[in-house]
Amino acid sequence: MAGPLSIAVKSYPHTAFLTDPAFTAGGRPVSVDAADPIYRAFAPMVRELRYDVSELAIATFLQAHEAGAPIALLPVVLSGDFHHHSLTRWPGSPEIAPGDLAGRRIGVRAYSQTTGLWVRGILQEEYGLDAKDVTWVTTEEPHVAEYVEPPNVERTTGKLLEVLRRGDVSAAVLGPPALDSAEGPLVPIIPDWRAAEEAWGVRHGTVPINHMLTVRRDLLEREPQVVTDLYQAFGTRIEERKAAEDGPRVRALRFGVTDELVAGLQVAIDYALQQNVIRTPVTVAELLGDFA
């Protein structure tokens, strides 16, 4: 009898069903790896195929796909949010307008971090600030070992909030968990960011994608019913949550190949190519080829 499926996902309301001992997929039980923070599971997934199924940041998946990793993308969005408010400065630090960040240093956990992808895209699209005109100060390497960072990316030591606090950077990009756990109020740099976020959503017809669900290609090919059962189970919980809650983070959740999912993936691809996060053009149809 086949052993349990290894699954790496964060604990969300729409993933709680995985911890139910009675849940099976294709007759197989599941074993959940509660990596905390979840991005600690991403490098092992793309470098070692450590898990059968894994939550994965969309920027990491784009890079892994470019590198030829045998991982398939399921049309399931596990997390997302608007990100105009993710570009911050330390309280009491000099005020700076988004358009004046050219030539400055901006901190981000990794150049390939998905929140950074969205923020750089916003700065380019709305303020004409090209990613190459900023020095990106990072604290971690990319998840995909084959990826070569642009020359304007530097590595430093310490936590990103400490780098920001000590003034080594003019601003920092923080993902939703880091923003939620920050001690004290950081100052968003983009003015009237709530209205700007909603305007971005109207313009693009989606909420930015952060993390999606991926599966080892050999599992998909060998045991398609297992993947189908998982896919349907995630979809049921996502639809239940969307029916009960509101807000950008819930609106971002997706199940199935919808117009909103296609729009979100297309903008992510466009931004990634602009910023040299990936260097090989790819289509949404290619990414979702297993579910066309």
TrEMBL record:
What highest taxon heads this organism's lineage? Bacteria
User: Could you identify this protein by its name?
Assistant: 4,5-dihydroxyphthalate decarboxylase
Q: What is the lineage of its organism?
A: Bacteria, Bacillati, Actinomycetota, Actinomycetes, Pseudonocardiales
